[in-house]
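FORM 7B: Structural annotation worksheet

SECTION A. Query
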Amino acid sequence: MSDDDVDMTAKRSDALGRRQLGGGRLGTYTVLGAACGVVPLPWVPDATARRVRGALVHDLTSRHGLSVTPEARAVLVEPAGTEGPRGVFSQGMTFAVSKVLGRFGPLALIGPVRSALGTFVLGHLLQRYLETARTARSVRIDVEEARRVRRAIDQALLYALTTDAHASREDPPFAPEDLRDQGDQVVDGVLISIASVPGWLVRRLDAAFDEVLASVRA
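SECTION B. Predicted structure
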């Protein structure tokens, strides 16, 4: 391989690295999204979530040399989905119900988990769309394109959690000789299952997103 070929390969790898958000960076946005759900005030969680997701969307699209119109950004970052911000009364009722459920221990985590999951799914699938599915030549993402992508993201999450999707299973780890006692086997099985959830969800999300995107219209 000539020096020119090596230099070209290095440039392509560097460009790809700049386009990709990376698991660590997306993980940081996910944690910030979770923090938004902790704020014990009505309307504040959704407002802060929009800020975090807005930064995530800009980070992703700018890495691909794209711009997003304000209307398109609003559609992509809205926690309530493509129909726009929820009404003041609706947000207030959601806050009240969350406070009541929060009295019952683990259910208090519903807000942070929902916000974290929404942030992660938005970042992961938007990146997948930009890298594998976007065919438009325009350097600007308008509201129609954003609405189509957002609907595909929302449907993919729903399908991933409620229906069978291809490539959703992963072969369990196999040791040539199992030297664990029965207690270790049980505990290891539970912990390994928990650790496999993110990968399981990502595989199902990718398969569901690829299936629904072609049929979704703005």
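SECTION C. Observations
The chain has one domain: 3-213. The chain has eight helices and two strands.

SECTION D. Sign-off
Analyst initials: ____
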